[in-house]
Design a protein that fits this description.
The complex is a heterodimer of chains A (about 425) and B (about 110).
Chain A: H1 6-14, E1 32-38, H2 42-55, E2 60-63, E3 79-80, H3 87-106, E4 118-122, H4 125-140, E5 146-149, H5 150-156, E6 172-176, E7 180-181, H6 184-197, E8 201-203, E9 208-214, E10 217-223, E11 226-235, H7 241-247, E12 255-266, E13 274-277, E14 282-286, E15 291-298, H8 310-323, E16 332-342, E17 349-352, E18 358-362, H9 372-385, H10 399-402
Parallel strand pairs in A: 1-2, 1-11, 2-8, 4-13, 11-18
Antiparallel strand pairs in A: 3-7, 4-6, 5-6, 9-10, 10-11, 12-15, 12-16, 13-14, 14-15, 17-18
Chain B: E1 3-5, E2 12-14, E3 18-23, H1 37-45, E4 53-60, E5 65-72, E6 78-83, E7 90-92, E8 98-100
Antiparallel strand pairs in B: 1-2, 3-4, 4-5, 5-6, 7-8
Bound molecules: flavin-adenine dinucleotide.
InterPro entries (chain B): SoxD (IPR006279), SoxD_sf (IPR038561)
Pfam families (chain B): SoxD (PF04267)
Organism (chain B): Kushneria sinocarnis
């Protein structure tokens, strides 16, 4: 694999950028792999990379029905943070955040991870109490987290309406300085390129249509390009996970909902951090190009159409304009939706299944981008050893029968 | 934006007058004491989450009436709305298609 560097950029400039190598091969599927990963989003590709690098398992295929990273990975608002309430979540998301911090070097690909901080705004007294509690919990778990009062917020985000008579008064906020945003496509492409360089086969435009199951044990998958056999199979298909589970003969505690986002025309810098408001289901940041990136809430009903309903967009824009009156005349450029796999406790499922050798990693819902490196890292371990990584143990789908939920709903300003 | 027909008043109203309440026809499990953890968990948390023809319950907010909707979750086409206690006409065929239970030929697909 060609190494990317500043020097390389200059060298390629001399040949008018016509000599760049392809980032990955386009291989024909083998008949058998040690591990098959279904779903070529960020999580699936990261899993492949850590399987190869950490565990030396390189006879691996990632099977993707569309193009790499074209699912939620390419549709999200890229907020990365680890300030969740519960210990289990803190371990999981902080594990990911630590990996984010070295990721560009690790995979030799600039994922533009920008630690510009994330604010979770509190609008009511109950919000304030919950936020303080969460900040304390974060600190006990060794996660950087501060409580800011309204003045602190105003100082950090001058554009926000912090007056007392605001429609959504700002009473305070939590602030995690190490949180931020990253470039979503780069994450998928970087992991893909790194995994490919270790021999992982990336099979695009190949849909998994069924599982080969013999005596309760998975033996491979059926795809639109024929049968492919494997020792173990990991399914990382986000919004499509219930359909995949049904193919394998079981049900998941997951519902798929459309979630939307939109971006504005490019502006000069106005917002240099990320602002999230759980109360109004809106969050906003500004990309390096200058577009405002705005995320909304989910539609209340099950939907697989990768587009959301209009009232949700109207609602989020109303809220953003109330919070940032100076943005009221900004024009919006594009709007889109993804299908997110929500669980009853707003925590993911990283789990063994009733089928031996078949593992699921799903249920990340509206907030799995931030977990991409951590999810891939512990899922690779799980696939390599055949049992859940210690960080993944609380996230078994068994918890919906035992009642040991990791109930981050509302607890952790959970929007994203 | 959906226009949904309330099966009680037969009037169409926009989506925002309604609240989606999840999968339809979920039977409440018997007492948690006599039910296994497995059955109780299934009742509380596990859903069909169909890609295709989906039966779901909605609430008309102004009149506080619950009813059911058969909707295709990819196209959002609403095939029918029906009152509580009634049975739906359209069923999922398990592969994203529709079965019309009142068609002459049972296996005929309408969409
Ligand atoms: C609008 C929006 C905003 C969001 N904002 C944030 C945010 O700010 N921060 C955050 O942390 N998270 C956010 N999320 C959530 C985040 O995007 C997801 O949790 C995360 O990207 C999931 O990654 P993934 O790799 O599991 O899924 P995906 O990227 O969706 O990958 C799954 C892949 O599986 C493939 N697949 C499905 N079925 C099959 C099959 N049968 N055969 C082969 N391949 C198949 C799909 O084509 C897809 O490419 C947001 C999501 C949306 C939609």
């Amino acid at each position: 694999m060609e190494r990317y560097s500043g020097f390389g950029l200059v060298r390629h400039a001399l040949s008018h950028h016509e000599q760049w190598q392809r980032m990955w091969r386009n291989p024909t599927p083998k008949r058998h792999y040690d591990v098959i990963i279904v779903g070529g989003g960020g999580h699936g590709l990261a899993t492949a990379w850590y399987l190869a690098r950490e565990h030396g398992v390189t006879n691996v295929a990632v099977i993707e029905k569309g193009w790499l990273g074209g699912g939620n990975t390419a549709r999200n608002t890229t907020i990365v943070r680890s300030n969740y309430l519960f210990d289990e979540s803190a371990r999981l998301y902080e594990h990911a955040l630590k990996l984010w911090e070295g990721l560009s070097q690790d995979i030799n690909y600039n994922v533009m991870f920008s630690q510009r901080g994330v604010l979770n705004v509190a609008h009511t007294m109950q919000d304030v109490r919950d936020t303080r509690r969460r900040v304390n919990a974060n600190r006990l778990n060794g996660i950087d987290s501060d409580y800011l009062d309204a003045d602190g917020v105003k100082h950090l985000v001058p554009a926000m309406d912090c007056l007392e008579n605001a429609r959504y008064p700002v009473l305070g906020a939590s602030f995690q300085p190490r949180a931020g945003v990253a470039r979503h496509d780069a994450v998928a492409w970087g992991y893909a390129r790194a995994a490919d360089s270790r021999g992982v086969d990336l099979l695009q435009n190949t849909e998994v249509t069924g599982f080969l199951i013999e005596n309760g044990e998975v033996k491979g998958v059926e795809t639109t390009s024929g049968e492919i056999r494997a020792g173990r199979v990991g399914v990382v298909t986000a919004g499509n996970s219930s359909t995949m589970a049904r193919m394998a003969g079981f049900n998941l505690p997951v519902e798929s909902h459309p979630l939307q986002a939109l971006v504005s025309e490019p502006l000069k810098p106005v917002i240099d951090t990320v602002i999230m408001s759980n109360q109004v289901h809106g969050y906003i940041s500004q990309s390096d190009k200058g577009d405002l990136v705005i995320g909304a809430g989910v539609d209340g009903y099950v939907g697989y159409g990768q587009r959301g309903s209009y009232p949700i967009i109207e609602h989020v824009i109303q809220a953003i304009v109330e919070m940032f009156p100076s943005l009221s005349r900004v024009r919006m450029n594009r709007q889109w939706g993804g299908v997110v796999d929500t669980t009853p406790d707003a925590s993911p499922i990283i789990s063994t299944t009733p089928v031996k050798g078949l593992f699921f990693n799903c249920g990340w819902g509206t907030g799995g981008f931030k977990a991409t490196p951590g999810s891939g890292h512990i899922f690779a371990w799980t696939l390599a050893k055949g049992r859940p990584h210690p960080i993944a143990e609380p996230y078994s789908m068994q918890r919906f029968h035992t009642g040991a939920l990791v109930d981050e709903h509302g607890a952790a300003a959970v929007a994203h | 934006m959906f226009y949904i027909r309330c099966p009680y008043t037969n009037e169409y109203h926009s989506e925002e007058e309604f609240k989606p309440c999840g999968q339809a026809q979920i039977r409440r499990a018997d007492s948690p004491v006599s039910t296994s953890d497995e059955q109780w968990g299934d009742y509380l948390f596990f859903r069909d989450n169909i890609r295709g023809v989906h039966h779901e319950m909605w609430l008309h907010l102004p009149t506080r009436r619950y009813f059911n909707v058969t909707r295709h979750t990819v196209t959002n086409e609403i095939l029918e709305t029906w009152r509580m206690g009634e049975e739906p006409r359209y069923q999922s065929d398990g592969r994203g298609g529709v079965i019309d239970t009142r068609a002459d030929n049972d296996s005929e697909e309408v969409a």
